[in-house]
Structures
1.
Amino acid sequence: VNDALGTFPLMCFRAGDATLGVAAEEVIAVEVANPAAVYIGVLMGIQAERSLRYQRTIWLDDGGAVVELVVDSPVRVHRIRPRDVLPIAPGLPLVERLPLLGFARVDERLALLLDTKPLIEALHERRRGATR
Amino acid sequence: VSEDGRPPSEQLRAFIGASLEESKPAMQVPTDVTLSFLMFRHGGRWFGVRAEAVKLVVAKDSITRVPAQPPHVLGVALIRSRLIPVIDLAHMTRSADRPADDAPGLRLVVLASQDDEVALVADEARGVIELAANSIDHNTSNKVSFISGVVKWRKGTASVIDTGLLLRAATRGEGDA
């Protein structure tokens, strides 16, 4: 959603030392961490020390339904400009396995821009695996 | 059929093969050909890459880790507005000898081949050095696919990197090529 200034609102959060971002419009709510929800790092292959004290649950729109994911703080909206956006580095191996759209410069860091559709699909897949 | 049991046609095939091999002139490397190399130190080891394959050498800034990558990928670095994968050369050469994270003056050596680029961490870089082509010993026992030879360098040796093979191994996820 480009605003009048040509910026795009991105909901950014952390998973371990990685900064992640999704389109802010896809995030319905941010709440205190739900210990029963799946940690996003599990879906991304990120190993991280977990502490609910520094975590939040984000609610993502799943085609009319809602899914919950636990993320690391801080969680906040950034407005990125077109010049902040960077394509996926050519030559980065195995990147097709990630729900990754690209990268963006956010507060002097590189954020991984996530595609929520495959991310949510990975969550459903994990739940299906857990119930088998 | 000969005494060794092989049919004549097989004997003739073997004879032709042996004859051609024998008459093949030994590969001569002209003594006056020189090649340009950038030499860089990675931990305690020196490596050489053809200068033509070196896109740039920059001071090492932060490297952003990318999840689900093979262990030889340290992450990506933002270099002149481009994201470039940073490769752990030590891992790819099956060595534990790598630059210390907090070593002063670390560099990133950016190599390019066709459409791919990778960066290697270097403690220091020296270049461009002209080396006689016939000074490179290609008959080494090195089992790393992208090390194409060894050259005398300073008081020791430097491993010569075949950039094309290195990039192929690094970008296909074959970390220990």
2.
Amino acid sequence: MPNRNSLLLLFLALVTQQAFATPEFSRRYNVKSCNTCHTVVPKLNERGYDFWARGYRPDPELNLERESTFPLSVWLAGRADHRIAKTSVDPKTFFNKVELIAGDSIGDSLNYFVEWRALSLEMNSDGSLNDRSGRFEDLWMSWMIDDRWTLTAGQFRPLQQIEPGRKISVSQPAIFNSSLPGRDDGNKRLTSLRSFSTGSRSPGVSLGYQSILGESAADGLFHNVTVMFPGEISLPLTREARIAASNELETATKGVVLETYYRRGMNSIGVHGFVGDNRWMASLVGEYNVDDVYFLGGVGLDHVDGKNDILRSSLGVEYLPQFEDSSWRPGVGFRVDAVEGLKPAYVPYLVLGAPNDGNVNSLLQLEYNGQSKNERLRLDFSIFF
Amino acid sequence: MRYLILLIFLGLCTPVVADVDPNDHTEARAFVKAAVLEQVEGHALSASTRDLLLSADDEGHPLSFIPDCPICLGVQDALRELEVGPDDEGLAAGLSAEKASTRTSSLARLVRQAVQAKLATIDDMQQRIEMAEKLKAGSEEGQRQLARYQSRKVEAYKMMWSCLMCDAAAKES
């Protein structure tokens, strides 16, 4: 199987250099480099944050012209996964992601983002693969009511300050991995969808208000209220996915997420919390940038009635140098994740993004999880076009 | 699998060979200068408006232009050669806005019109194509220069998406 997948990946990598090989946004605004909006894809820089905060529109003062383009980007990824601590589990190499992505602004006030995973595989702790092919990740539309109010509906992650999906490490920091269990009525799938994690997507409706405007559209003081519902929007493609990623939606709310944060450039500080039936969580998260060094830190508390509270914290640093005469973007990071009751995890990682020419990009991520008795090495290779 | 990944990665990073010598931008710079001067022939700018357009930050980086960009240098050459007098209302109204980004986009519109008009005067199709290629090479050099200054984290260019002068010059070519 790996051979067939490898050949497919090679074929796609070669043909896309001649085809429509450009991510949608850079094609649409004739941008010459992925680094216009990203430090290392997918991590945003200040211009990227500004474009995102304007609802996928460039600063109107720049008078950039929209070009007509094929409204789709593709993200292909393969993974080598080695659970070092589990000698009974063989290392595995597999295609884990084929993703179709579309996003754009509509008129002066609407914008949308759709991210559909035609192939979605994850390795379970026993070495088997969990197939959830056909599920949607993001599927939302946003209405910028005026320059302060925004209404968003669909399926999305509730956090705005830091979008955990724009990480360059393979794993998410523990600060976004809180998992408040959902009501169990015997249905494993629904119980899982009723649980809450800040790093996971759910159907929901969010109202945002910006009380202080800043120099850039992404700068200022922001407040968001999000009502989340248990569910997952999905078009399952395989027999396994029809069980593990069935299309579900419950009308009883999961809970409410409240968030307030202040951003200036690449620095931000904020608090967010979730309140649901018999459970709540609260976190303080900050990020700070000096030259090519990016810090992330956070601490949070998870509470479930009748159980001990769990304290979570993450502290990380990334060095992402930018070279004057090269569009290659290497990076190195190190993070410590601590969750009460578990051994701390020491997570070093390396990344390399290239060629970043606005036509096609690739990303290599190598991450070691140094948690006692849970050591794990993962290598991801992605192509975006 | 790992060898295939390496092969794919190397394949993606194959450099693209430019058709035009990127070191020769003298003609593109001179062409842009002449085009802008012809476009604004008969117009005048006050010394204060011209200084505003050519203003720089504390470290000497021009606020409306990319340093070492051949297209931007052509525009700056033209501005320096413009007749100084009382502001022409049509020209100054578009150019002398407070914000650097507004000034830059107004200048870019002017450059686009100027390049389009100047190219149209070249009767020989082959010569027109060659000039267009030189402008394109100049604009690519400008975009490289912008990336260079952005990687140095120069404040004046941190929010720029691309060199608007370059976009304007290459648009009609």
